[in-house]
Amino acid sequence: MDWSQFNRKIRIKAPMDQVYKAWADLDKISTWFLKSAVLVDSETVRSSVQKGDKVEWRWYNYENPSIVEIKQSNGSDQMVFTFGYGMEVRIELSREDEYTLLSLTQYNIPTGEESRMNFHVGCRQAWSTWMLNLKSWLEHDILLHDKDLGERKDLFDFVNT
To answer: Which residues contact 118 (CB under 8 A, 6 or more apart)?
Structure first.
């Protein structure tokens, strides 16, 4: 087994540009995935990310923000961003009948014992949850995560934070 990367795929019954915007638009990614996403050190005000942007991601279940760098963003079907500890995530979209196939690959995962559990197993499960949330939102306008849990000490016990 290759612990340095994993893939997740999901078919979403939505136009490809709508799925892409759900990742690239700061307001949209803050709807289905993050508490907030804000451009860092940007001299222009815009709502979508571009290659080279740095974005502050704030989480619902973790108080420290993450700074994500957009390594690639072609505006239609591919995006690559950093994801801490030297890891990167690649998003690729393609059409499959009336669906958009979303393929997510997280790679450059550290392969030590603790990293295997935290990043390979943990992130793989988390991406599965969030990709299902994205599908639910785009296909049915239903969000599966609970934005109203506040500052609870047991946030990690909830399956939908």
So the answer is: none
Contact 72, 78 (CB under 8 A): yes
Asked whether the beta carbons of 5 and 111 are under 8 A apart, the reply is: no
DSSP, residue by residue, 48-111: B--TT-EEEEE-SS-SS-EEEEEEEE-SSSEEEEE-STT-EEEEEEEEETTEEEEEEEEE----
> How far is CA 110 from its chain centroid?
19
Task: Write the pLDDT tens digit of every residue in 125-160.
Answer: 999 999 999 999 999 999 999 888 877 888 778 887
- Structural domains in the chain, CATH included, are 7-149 (3.30.530.20)
Render pLDDT for 41-66 as a digit per residue (tens, 0 to 9).
Answer: 877 788 999 999 999 999 988 889 99
CA distance 7 to 92: 11
Non-local (6+) Cβ contacts of 156 within 8 A are 61
For 127, the token pair is 């991406």
Residues whose CB falls within 8 Å of the CB of residue 120, separated by 6 or more in sequence, listed in order: 3, 6, 109
Average pLDDT, whole number, for the chain? Answer: 95
